[in-house]
# Entry
Amino acid sequence: MHGVRESLLDAQAQRMGLPLIKVKLPPHPDDRLYKNAMLETMQRLKDDGIQAAAFGDIFLEDLKAYRETQLQQLDITPVFPLWKKDTRELVELVAATGIEAKIVCVDAQKLGREFIGRKIDASLLADLPDNVDPCGENGEFHTFVYNAPFFSAPIPIAEGEVVFKEYKTEENSWGFYFLDLQPI
# Structure
């Protein structure tokens, strides 16, 4: 959903010195295909000795329950280090610790195009409407981290084009703005 180039994800993993395991899915996978791909990947990780998986979920009960159910099948322990934390305090902590991130995707029903490319900081917190979670926990926006204390070096990026994509079902229509971040 972020719309970030794969090379930038590779750069994040490289700068953290971590392996990156990619799960390839078609553009619009159904739930069964997604579940099977994730279970197969998690089984391979378990076979390699992985015993726990960490998630950044903060307060979405249904998503937490879904992850717990999926991992229970494999006897992998789910870990939720941010669970029930205050999202405003989390954003303040991100800024205070030197983590730098930009908004790369905005749900057009929840935020305007002007939020695309905004840095996650105190200024953003001051400008967010009251009905938008400071961490975008309800899907209001998605971010890309380009610099952090745990990176070996910042990821040089340039802001490219902003595109709007509309998604339709028989019942609904909704759209998202995406920022094309480009590696330099």
Residues 86-183 form one domain. Residues 33 and 92 are 37 Å apart (CA to CA). The helical segments are 6-16, 31-47, 61-72, 87-96, 122-127. The first strand starts at residue 52 and ends at 54.
